[in-house]
Write the structure tokens for this entry.
Amino acid sequence: MDYKRYIAKHLTIEGISEEEIAEAVAVPPNTDMGDYALPCFKFAKFMRKSPVQIAEDLKNAYPADEVISEVSAVNGYLNFKVNRKGLAKDVLERIGREGERYGAFDLGGGKVICLDYSSVNIAKPFHIGHLSTTVLGGALYRIFNFLGYKAVGINHLGDYGTQFGKLISAYNRWGNKELIEQGGIRALNELYVRFHREAEKHPELEDEARAYFKKIEDGDKECLALFDWFKELTLKDVNKVYERLGIKFDSYAGESFYQDKMQPVVDELREKGLLKESRGAQIVDLEEYGMSPCIILKSDGSSLYATRDMAAAIYRKQTYDFEKCLYVVAYQQNLHFKQFFKVLELMGKEWAKDLVHVAYGMVSLEDGAMSTRKGNVIFLEDVINQCVEKAYRIIDEKNAALENKADVAEKVGVGAVVFGALYNSKIKDIVFSYDKALNFDGETSVYVQYTCARAASVLAKAAAAGYKSSDEVCEPSAQEFELLKALASFPDCVQAAASAYEPSYIARFCVDTAQKFNKFYLDCKILQAEDETRAFRLRLTQATLTTLKNALGLLGIAVPEKM
RNA sequence: GCACCGUUAGCUAAGCUGGAUAUAGCGUCGGUCUACGGAACCGAAGGCCAGGAGUUCGAAUCUCUUACGGUGCACCA
């Protein structure tokens, strides 16, 4: 039930459409005033009446009905209270009917949304700087699928560039097979860090690295074999983390995949007269648009990031025919995206408008920025492990008899890591601290999961006692009503999250709803209530659990039955 | 220097297209255990929404401006 529209339909204000009225309907700051309100101030001028008078007149003209239980005029506001029982019936029926699809809606009609996220670099370990793109992308992937789109997850691997020359150089100098087989990607990373340390003293190493990279490009068997091995190791390592985080990809086409797809882009740019030589490089001049030039080819003729990204965008359009292509990449690259989006537009690709840079804030450490080269990083796996360990300790302390303790600890610990990264607006910078990551109190996934466990526990006891829920609905109390309204808002919340590319909306919804459930839970006895009330409350409890599971599920967080 | 982003309680943050008393969590202090799971709940203290100007009946929200912080600005990705 769309109450705003319903109210608008029953109001007539001369010169204003129903649509406009519906848009003007707002939610008052507290429930005592009403559930919806129409501020009448903006109508005063052309109606030549005071807002107070307008509200009063509208109130008197509003027809009595079943859906709205009370209409009042207060200080120029027209306040509405909805029929609580009606709302309860509506929401509970819908959640019961839709179950794990509650909140879903076929908005997309199967249209494709490409999502470029996580995009790890080969031979670099997964650190907390990669967390945001990974979990944001993963959440958006699920959200769009939930809304009837066909999401295509793309891990645009960083598997191309001089850094691999450096790595091979370092490996040949200081590494060996056993070292890497035992130490895995972290050992590889140490080699990389060492290279940079040594290269400061011996700059000739840089030349060696460039030579090795050239060999890869030229298809040198030994170098390529080494490179493929590094790639395999990296994916194996990273996949462990993806699996724990519940992240999936449909494509791992990375930078090297586009090696042979850039020349046509360059040719097309040249044909269209967009390419221009400047300081020895081939550029597209963007001065007219207030941007520095987009460099297409370096002065030595080799390609760049932007060239590859354009080739990738064109490939994706041809392959997937996307409705939108989202790039979940940190805001540092704002200019880069603006540039190559613009160049594609200048090339006459009308779909360039469907490319979206979903920018998010940076992660730094308390002692400054992270740097893979300097080895100043916190590995994501370490953070996850610590959270899981802490969860296990707490379970051991509070609920030692619990079965599957390790499994539950995994759900709780991983959930905390994911939720922490999704709870705030994505654009905000984050200073990582273990204290914050390991906090399980208050506005956290653990709180929400705990709330679910409480709800599940009540439902289990009810089932054991043979209590049935019924289709009848009681007049909701204040707490019950607040909870019901929260549950009713979930579908809108999912759509808002999708259109703003903000999974945090859903994370906030989870905490808000859990808070309301806990208030209800404390004030309203469920199992000890009289038959009719108990049946209603059980249904409300079940609906809450269903909704929270759906919401957390979209974020990639599992809900244990007990914890 | 130019561009983009940020600035809300001691700390971390919500606040949707301008609307009624600015909202949570953490921390602090004080309560609720004869418990449908205390990883919970209630209460208190804590605010010139960075400063200034403007638009408006009405501004944390829109515009301009200043300050502070972050990021980016030609051959890295």
